[in-house]
């Protein structure tokens, strides 16, 4: 029994030694294996930098204004008999808007006409008397005083006739003012005075007629925005049109473009002390009356150009604590981080002021998994879509 236990003990010892040797062998084999394989290259899309001249459009939030808004006022006092026009309708030059009670004014005309007739009769009598007196004085039949009296009476009668004519003209003018006409073509406003109201200097404002063509487009430029534009021009990154002749396009609320193009015709020489901006005004023809006063639109100032611009998609630009950067493909087809200085947005692209040169390949898609030195499989991309977008947008 003891012998059998001894044999069993030796068998267990041999098994343990064999197992340990096997484990040592496996460990030595594992330590001699080859290093892990490199990760596969990352598929990306890259755009090759090709500087080019890019048209730049500056967009401003604007309001429309009638180029001539005329306040229609009563020029004489009296009762307003009736409103003739339809409120809110388009009216023509010379169209009747209001009628006042004409009877008092007609009576003044008639009275002035009668006074004129009386004074003209007196003038004829004085003329005849002077004609008779002059030869009698020459014959010493009448004195020089009689001649002077006749001449004075004639001149006094002539002055009376002139005064009566002026009074008649004034009365006729007042009578004409009783019919109130539109002085311009435009769109009418509501009537501020009801029919039958007595109108005088206190309530003479009757309505307003606003000219629709041409229409003014007003927008404001702040001092900071002006400085930015001037600095861009000094740096050669922005080139204005020759002679500063910008074209103004009008973008309506639905995003469509107004068919007529305008031009800048006025810039306020001083800043508004409350807003820190100065007014710029464009004028545009509005033959169909599509634009109405006090309407919000966008003024697109066209004509500037960014020469030799580097434009890349906005999605290619990333930002870290140190600033903006992009990923580029180096000569070894590996990812390289490149810091850049960005400029203005333009449509779907972003102008790059510093950091990229012609021939650089910028990664525009697939940059999320990149690290410096990562291997790449590169697919070329086209140029970013250029749309007419703003480099500066402001509101009044």
Explain the overall architecture.
By secondary structure, this protein is α+β, with helices and mostly antiparallel strands. It has 4 domains: 42-53 and 309-380, conserved putative lor/sdh protein from methanococcus maripaludis s2 fold; 58-67 and 212-305, Beta Barrel (Elongation Factor Tu (Ef-tu), domain 3), CATH 2.40.30; 76-101 and 178-210, OB fold (Dihydrolipoamide Acetyltransferase, E2P) (Beta Barrel), CATH 2.40.50.100; 102-176, Helix Hairpins, CATH 1.10.287. Helix content is 28%, strand content 34%. It contains 4 helices and 23 strands. The protein has helices at residues 2-31, 103-138, 144-177, 223-234, and strands at residues 42-48, 52-66, 69-73, 78-83, 90-91, 96-100, 179-181, 186-188, 198-199, 205-210, 215-222, 247-251, 263-267, 277-284, 296-309, 311-313, 318-320, 323-329, 335-339, 341-346, 349-354, 361-365, 376-380. The strands form 6 sheets. It has a 6-stranded antiparallel sheet with strand order 12-15-2-11-14-13. Helix 2 runs antiparallel to helix 3. The longest helix has 36 residues, at 103-138. The radius of gyration is 47 Å and the shape is elongated. The chain starts with a helix and ends in a 16-residue tail after the last strand. The relative contact order is 0.19.
């Amino acid at each position: 029994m003891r012998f059998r236990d001894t044999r069993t003990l030796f068998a267990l010892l041999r098994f343990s030694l064999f197992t340990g040797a096997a484990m040592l062998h496996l460990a030595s084999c594992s330590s001699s294996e080859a290093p892990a394989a490199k990760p596969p290259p990352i598929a990306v899309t890259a755009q090759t930098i090709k500087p080019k001249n890019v048209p730049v459009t500056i967009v401003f939030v604007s309001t429309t204004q009638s180029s001539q808004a005329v306040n229609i006022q009563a020029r004489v006092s009296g009762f307003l008999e009736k409103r003739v026009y339809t409120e809110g309708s388009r009216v023509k030059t010379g169209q009747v808007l209001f009628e006042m009670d004409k009877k008092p004014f007609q009576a003044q005309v008639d009275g002035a006409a009668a006074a004129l007739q009386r004074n003209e009769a007196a003038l004829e009598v004085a003329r005849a008397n002077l004609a008779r007196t002059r030869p009698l004085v020459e014959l010493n039949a009448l004195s020089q005083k009689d001649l002077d009296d006749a001449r004075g009476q004639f001149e006094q009668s002539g002055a009376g006739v002139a005064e009566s004519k002026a009074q008649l003209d004034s009365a006729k003018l007042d009578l004409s003012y009783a019919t109130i006409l539109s002085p311009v073509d435009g769109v009418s406003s509501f009537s501020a005075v009801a029919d039958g109201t007595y109108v005088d200097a206190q309530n003479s404002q009757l309505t307003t007629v606003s000219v629709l063509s041409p229409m003014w487009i007003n927008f404001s430029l702040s001092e900071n925005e002006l400085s930015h534009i001037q600095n861009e021009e000094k740096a050669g990154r922005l080139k204005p049109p020759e002679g500063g002749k910008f074209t103004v396009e009008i973008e309506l609320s639905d995003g469509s473009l107004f068919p007529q193009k305008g031009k800048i015709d006025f810039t306020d020489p001083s800043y508004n002390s409350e807003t820190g901006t100065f007014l710029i005004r464009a004028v545009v023809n509005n033959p169909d009356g599509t634009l109405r006063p006090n309407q919000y639109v966008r003024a697109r100032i066209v004509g500037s150009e960014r020469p030799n611009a580097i434009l890349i998609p906005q999605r290619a630009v990333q930002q870290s604590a140190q600033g903006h950067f992009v990923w580029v493909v180096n000569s070894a087809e590996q990812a390289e981080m490149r810091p850049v200085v960005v400029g203005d947005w333009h449509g779907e692209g972003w102008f790059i002021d510093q950091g990229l040169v012609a021939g650089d390949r910028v990664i525009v898609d697939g940059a999320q998994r990149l690290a410096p030195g990562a291997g790449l499989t590169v697919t070329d991309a086209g140029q970013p879509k250029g749309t007419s977008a703003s480099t500066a947008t402001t509101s009044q």
